[in-house]
Design goal:
Helix content of chain B: over 70%
Chains: A alpha/beta, B mainly alpha, C alpha/beta
Order of helices and strands of chain C: EHEHEHEEHEHEHEHEHEHEEH
Strand order of the largest sheet of chain C: 2-1-3-4-5-11
CATH class of chain B: Mainly Alpha
Strand order of the largest sheet of chain B: 1-4
Oligomer: heterotetramer
Largest interface: B-D, 45 and 46 residues
Largest sheet of chain B: 2 strands, antiparallel
Protein name (chain A): Sugar ABC transporter ATP-binding protein
Shape of chain C: elongated
Structural class of chain C: alpha/beta
CATH topology of chain B: ABC transporter involved in vitamin B12 uptake, BtuC
CATH architecture of chain B: Orthogonal Bundle
Shape of chain B: globular
Distance between the termini of chain C: 52 Å
Radius of gyration of chain C: 20 Å
Family (chain A): Belongs to the ABC transporter superfamily.
Strand content of chain B: under 5%
Keywords (chain A): ATP-binding, Nucleotide-binding, Repeat, Sugar transport, Transport
Number of strands of chain B: 4
Bound molecules: adenosine-5'-triphosphate, magnesium ion
Number of strands of chain C: 12
Structural class of chain B: mainly alpha
Order of helices and strands of chain B: HHHHHHEHEEHHHHEHHH
Number of helices of chain C: 10
Number of domains of chain B: 1
GO molecular function, one term (chain A): ATP binding
InterPro entries (chain A): AAA+_ATPase, ABC_carbohydrate_import_ATPase, ABC_transporter-like_ATP-bd, ABC_transporter-like_CS, P-loop_NTPase
Chain lengths: 503, 309, 282, 309
């Protein structure tokens, strides 16, 4: 159905694709795999007409295919969900679904009602939950991801391309999506699926192609392969991911009592002790992200008592957290994490500007010291980048994520608040981020992380928390929980629905 | 969003009107004066509605003032050369539209910052206007039928007010009920997303800038009709005020997006303040100070209600 | 009595002087004066005339504008029985009286004075601003004078930008000095601010030159500089206080039910130079 | 990035200088004229460097023109009241700094659009200036020592040029070599990301706006020293030109970020074009047209090389 041969693409000095090959059959789900920066997104961008390849051929159904722009790809029957969500924040979900398409019309005017009805129909047909009447700028990352997916499902597609669609979805939604994908494939659609969650890949995909440094290094049917074989193909070497087990705890580092992130949330009590890695799980909208942001002091509506190392802090105020040794990584790197058009160096140095002072009392950074320090920091985090002066937006998605986390790993911080820290990160780097967390905990620090990946939760967390409707419905050590008990807690019925409609 | 956040700017305008009415019940609050305000704000509103189009792209067009002036000078020159009303109006509007199209094309294809591009364009247009007019104020030879387009009353309402209403409906219609308008707002909201989903950046930008200067040319024609003369820099004063109106309107409705009703409201605030302070006989310098304070207050009313997060 | 004074050019020195005198004189008569400036914006000027008409003032005074540029509004005021006066403006329908100095005559006096002090020949630099109708008349007078004096040549000219005329003229003059140097014999400035700018350039870049600079308006700073024996030797002083005083008298007559003494009242202009200031420059 | 993309605007300036030199080898290209250009551009450069600070926050400050005028009027008034040089300068600079701090505070705490906030602030400042000066040009009583700060030469270079250089170094230092400057740029790049990484939004914004109007006040003082008089609207003409210089500078270096050397370059382009066209004796309307065209060309040179993606 879709054949790609010898595809090449360079960005300045960086070779993103170097003779990539891929054959996708109709009615099959095809997993495109590879480490961060292997060239997956670039390949898909060539397919979608966003980037023009430097060489190579693409054929669809036997005919040569060379889209000049995204429109041409759409006309050829391809639908895309790009890795970086591209939505217009001021538009509602249903309007976003029509941007770049022909709007429904009534008497030549934009037919708002029909537009909404058509989108609502698609949403309901696929069993997704989504408030479609608010501007998407007010939705969480995961909800935005659902908007992007639904957008691609608006009409019949010959080829559906999903670049890490489940990166910020939790178990339930991810499962729904897998069902949708299978359904489409059964109807004869070819699906290309990029994901770093290998168990998911094995659950949904039929075939695979592995890219390494822009080259195709393996392809075939997944039923012939094991997880370890695929990992070895991707990384180019044997690689084992250890399961963490850490239960040693010390004095309380973080203590919340009667803490409410927002007026419509119930108050919470929570303690995180030194040496602990606490995983926070829940479905989309359960209130994990807002809890983390509120602990970080980024939420002016938060109320209640918060103590860090026994010292009471104001409910809002980021500077106090930083001074107290807390670090925070948001889930939405593009809008809330990084300054995309600034250099890697500027982004990496931002939270730690005062660390590289020319003289300790002078707020004047020494750029030489900063460059040296940041190079080491990024090397520790295994970030793949060209030059420190390159824009951070030119890094692959996973490497951007690693910059955003790695920049906090200096000696000053010992309590980490991580919101979906390994979103879009490949297996090996995920292990590295995990071992950074472990080292921190061993040195007497602590980590509170949010994840939507139950695998990761069980692998990393020494203590498991589950949130539902803004309450903590489960708090137990790792060894005392099972997949089932976690999922049960997730769907714990609320006494009353505390979530009010937005807008 | 609280009530004061959603309708804050409208409340602001109401408060300003109420204040002036209380201070000057016989002069300000008289119906004839209030009707007259709608006439005084109309040209500003038309220019500002044009600016709303480029602001919906998240760009600026700083040539609008120069285009207003140009339209006046071009039309009176053509009348002077013996042209009839229809060809004169058509040529003037086409010229106005063309200016924006050129800016829009260069901005979109070469990614030139619209600020500098349109500032340069405004300088060029200003030079051309001077060339045509020789720097002098032009009057005479303006047909009465033309002048009547910018003065007098129709069915009890000032003609200019009706023009401004028509322009508001036109702009609201384009922005909310045509694909073109939605594409403009999509580009303005997230240019990269628009590009990736296949929104045609260049033609959409060309139209937005073109509509902007087209409305500026309309305002220039109406200004000439209203004054019976054209001054080579007569429209330049509209520039900053027009954007002030758009920004006031952005804070008014729709969560910070440029929108036509908001722009009209913004122009109304500016016009009411100027009229009210004049009628109260406030000294010149105090007028400036009050104008500034009232505008800040009008935006604050809204933002205070909105300062959540 | 309520009098509204409107002008688009309050920040220009000449206009400001008229308005100041007018205000003082009328307040002495117990009138309330409200001054409005629209910063060069004629649409605003039109709106403000409508406003004061609506507010029902007893008289409207337009300063430094040609009332024809806002003809309908002036006529509207006249219809309501509000007398409209122009200061340094022009006559138009509905204007009770225009009190002014003839700008063309000002330009002629300046040109003649300058040409005479150059001895009837030489190269001059011209600073002008044709957007202002009055200033443009002066320019036309220069053109006529140049026709009559074939030995005077304009070797460089500059259109002065407003706001900021002094600095703008200064920059242009700096450029001309480097370009033409000693070849420049005189500077013709359509009003005093560019003349001051030209003088500043000369003082810093060619302090020993004998270039003759002359302007129009009798701007106090210019008069001061003439008295200090600088290259700025003369300005044609319009009698702005005189215009303002004449206007106050006319308005009083009209408000008392009389008729203005004439529709167009010319107030004389005179040359202010070292001699008339009694400066000793030897 | 290709060579023409990286140094396009610089190449543009060089080309403009070469062109004028060829057209007028004796007048334009003379050293004394070139030195003089550096003096003519200096006040614009200082105002524009101030604007660079707020642009680095991705905001506008439209009150700079009014602050330039205010500084002149305040200082001459104080001299007139018998104040000495040092207290006069200090009070004027503090007043200038305060204006920006107020704007910055309101913009940052209430999320007011800076465009409308500073436009209102500029109106207020303009009104105060009128009040103080009564609308008149002020002169007299200005000490010669003060005047010498804005005229004459020091070690062969015009004093004003030295001021502009000092301001450039100051701005470049703040933006590139202090934590404050990096924080400003981070806020300008992504406000939310900066906030979440602990950048204090309010103080940083207050400093940026304050530095902006502080430099405007410096320019106002120097303008007064240069002219020996102060005019209540004498600085208003700087507003649009200053932002033009910043935008020219943004396209010049650093991938579209505001930066001090770029701003200086932008001011140089504007000054060279004005000087060159005056020397060539181009009629004023053609000057406008050429100025516009040259500025567009200067930006295009760079963007043509840059149009990859
Ligand atoms: N616009 C660009 N300019 C320069 N380099 C780029 C650009 N886009 C991608 N690259 C480089 O191309 C390489 C491949 O990137 P790509 O985004 O395709 O990786 P990926 O396989 O999708 O990785 P991830 O799993 O992290 O998303 C990376 O080294 C990246 O830095
Ligand atoms: N002002 C508000 N009023 C009512 N509901 C709100 C408001 N703000 C946010 N919400 C809702 O509260 C829920 C909590 O979102 P939050 O991002 O904290 O949860 P989460 O578990 O991290 O979800 P995700 O996994 O999607 O990030 C969301 O569904 C959101 O729509
Ligand atoms: Mg990718
Ligand atoms: Mg979340």
């Amino acid at each position: 159905m879709l054949e790609i041969e010898e595809l090449r693409k360079r960005f300045g000095g960086v070779t993103a694709l170097d003779s990539a090959r891929m054959r996708v059959a109709a009615g099959r789900v095809h997993a495109l795999l590879g480490e961060n920066g292997a060239g997956k997104s670039t390949l898909l961008k060539c397919l979608s007409g966003v980037d023009r390849p430097d060489g190579g051929t693409m054929r669809i159904g036997g005919y040569a295919y060379a889209p000049a722009d995204p429109h041409a790809a759409e006309d050829a029957g391809l639908r895309f969900v790009h890795q970086e969500l591209n939505l217009v924040p001021s538009f509602t979900a249903y309007e976003n679904a029509f941007v770049g398409r022909r709007y429904p019309r009534r008497l030549g005017l934009v037919g708002w009602r029909e537009m909404r009805a058509r989108f609502a129909e698609v949403r309901d047909r696929h069993g997704m939950e989504l408030d479609i009447d608010v501007p998407v700028g007010r939705l969480s990352t995961a909800k935005c991801q659902i908007v992007g997916i639904l957008r691609a499902l608006m009409d019949e597609a010959r080829v559906l391309v999903l670049d890490e669609p489940t990166a910020s979805l939790s178990e339930g939604e991810a499962k729904t999506l897998r069902k949708i994908v299978r359904g489409l494939a059964d109807h004869g659609c070819a699906v290309i699926f990029v994901s770093h969650r290998l168990d998911e890949v094995f659950a949904v995909a039929d075939d695979y192609t592995v890219l390494r440094n822009g080259r195709t290094v393996g392809e075939g049917s997944l039923s012939d392969e094991t997880r370890d074989q695929i990992i070895a193909l991707m990384a180019g070497e044997e690689f084992k991911h250890e399961r963490a087990a850490l239960t040693r705890t010390g004095a309380p580092l973080l203590k919340l009592s009667g803490f409410t992130p927002a007026y419509f949330r119930p108050p919470l009590d929570l303690t995180v002790n030194a040496g602990e890695i606490v995983g926070l799980y829940g479905v989309i909208g359960s209130g994990r992200s807002s809890l983390l942001a509120s602990i970080w002091g980024a939420n002016s509506l938060a109320r209640g008592e918060i103590r860090i190392k026994e010292r009471a802090l104001p409910a809002a105020g980021i500077a106090e957290r930083i001074a107290a040794g807390v670090a925070y990584v948001p889930e939405d790197r593009r809008n809330r994490g990084l300054v995309m058009h600034h250099s890697v160096l500027d982004n990496a140095v931002l939270p730690r500007l005062s660390l590289y002072r020319a003289a300790s009392k002078l707020p004047v950074p020494s750029w030489r010291a900063a460059r040296r320090g940041i190079r080491r920091l990024l090397a520790d985090g295994n970030v793949k980048y060209g030059k420190l002066s390159d824009r951070v937006s030119t890094l692959s998605g996973g490497n951007q994520q690693k910059v955003m986390i790695g920049r906090w790993f200096t000696d000053e911080a010992w309590l980490f608040l991580l919101d979906e820290p390994t979103r879009g990160v490949d297996v090996r780097s995920k292990a590295e981020i995990h071992s950074m967390c472990l080292r921190l905990a061993e040195d007497g620090g602590a980590v509170l992380f949010v994840t939507s990946d139950i695998e990761e939760l069980l692998m990393l967390a020494g203590r498991v928390l589950v949130m539902a409707h803004g309450r903590i419905t489960l708090d137990a050590p790792n060894h005392a929980v099972t997949r089932q008990s976690i999922l049960d807690a997730t769907f714990h019925a609320p006494d009353r629905d505390p979530i009010r409609k937005t807008g | 969003m609280s009530f004061s956040a959603r309708y804050g700017t409208l409340i602001g305008l109401t408060a300003i009107v109420a204040l002036f009415s209380a201070l000057s019940p016989e002069a300000f609050a008289r119906t004839s004066n209030l009707i007259n305000i709608t006439q005084q704000m109309s040209l500003l509103a038309i220019v500002a509605l044009g600016a709303t189009f480029v602001m919906s792209l998240s760009e600026f067009d700083l040539s609008v003032g120069a285009v207003v002036s140009m339209a006046g000078i071009v039309s009176v020159s053509l009348f002077g050369a013996g042209w009839g009303m229809v060809p004169t109006i058509v040529v003037t509007l086409v010229a106005g539209f063309a200016v924006g199209c050129i800016s829009g094309f260069l901005v979109a294809t070469w990614r030139m910052p619209s600020f500098i591009m349109t500032l340069a364009m405004g300088t060029i247009v200003g030079g051309l206007t001077f060339w045509i007019s020789d720097g002098a104020t032009l009057f005479g030879n303006i047909p009465n039928a033309f002048r009547d387009m910018g003065r007098g009353y129709l069915a009890g309402a000032p003609v200019l007010t009706l023009w401004a209403l028509a322009a508001t409906i036109f702009a609201a219609f384009i922005l909310d009920y045509t694909e073109l308008g939605r594409k403009m707002l999509a580009i303005g909201g997230n240019r990269e997303a628009a590009r990736l989903t296949g929104v045609p950046i260049v033609p959409t930008s060309v139209y937005a800038f073109g509509l902007c200067t087209l409305l500026a040319a309309v305002a220039g024609l109406l200004l000439t009709a209203r004054l019976g003369s054209a001054h080579p820099t007569g429209g330049n004063g509209f520039l900053l005020q027009a954007y002030a109106a758009v920004f006031l309107g952005m804070t008014a409705f729709r969560d910070g997006q440029p929108n036509a009703p908001g722009t009209l409201l913004g122009a109304a605030i500016i016009a009411v303040v100027a009229n009210g302070l004049t009628i109260l006989g406030v000294p010149n310098y105090l007028q400036d100070i009050f104008t500034g304070l009232i505008i800040i207050a009008a935006v604050l009313v809204r933002n205070v209600g909105h300062k959540t997060q | 009595e309520d009098v509204a004074v409107l002008t688009p050019y309050l920040s220009s020195v000449a206009t400001n002087e008229m308005v100041e005198t007018f205000t003082t004189e009328s307040e002495a008569k117990g009138w309330t004066v409200n001054v409005l400036d629209t910063r060069g914006d004629f649409q605003q000027l039109a709106s403000r005339i409508e406003d004061v008409t609506n507010a029902g003032v007893d008289a409207i005074v337009l300063v430094s504008v040609d009332p024809n540029q806002v003809g309908d509004q002036v006529a509207g005021a006249a219809e309501k029985g509000i007398p409209v006066f122009a200061l340094d403006g022009a006559l138009a329908d509905g204007v009770s009286a225009n009190i002014t100095t003839d700008n063309f005559a000002l330009g002629t006096i300046l040109s003649d004075y300058l040409f005479e002090s150059l001895g009837g020949e030489g190269d001059i630099v011209k600073f002008f601003h044709s957007a202002h109708p009055g200033v443009r008349q002066r320019e036309l007078a220069l053109d006529k004078a140049l026709e009559e004096n074939p030995n005077i040549k304009v070797i460089a000219e500059h259109y002065v930008q407003v706001p900021g005329p002094i600095d703008n003229a200064r920059q242009a003059m700096e450029t001309f000095i480097r370009q033409h140097g000693e070849a420049i014999d005189g500077v013709w400035a359509a009003w005093d601010e560019p003349a001051i700018g030209a003088l500043l350039a000369l003082q810093s870049d060619m302090p020993d030159s004998d270039i003759v600079i002359a302007g129009i308006d009798g701007n106090p700073q210019a008069v001061d500089l003439i008295g200090q024996c600088t290259n700025l030797v003369a300005t044609v002083r319009q009698d702005f206080p005189g215009i303002a005083r004449a206007a106050v008298e006319e308005i009083e007559t009209v408000l008392d039910g009389g008729e203005p003494s004439s529709k167009e009242i010319f107030v004389d202009a005179m040359v202010v130079d070292r001699e008339s200031l009694g400066a000793d420059c030897k």
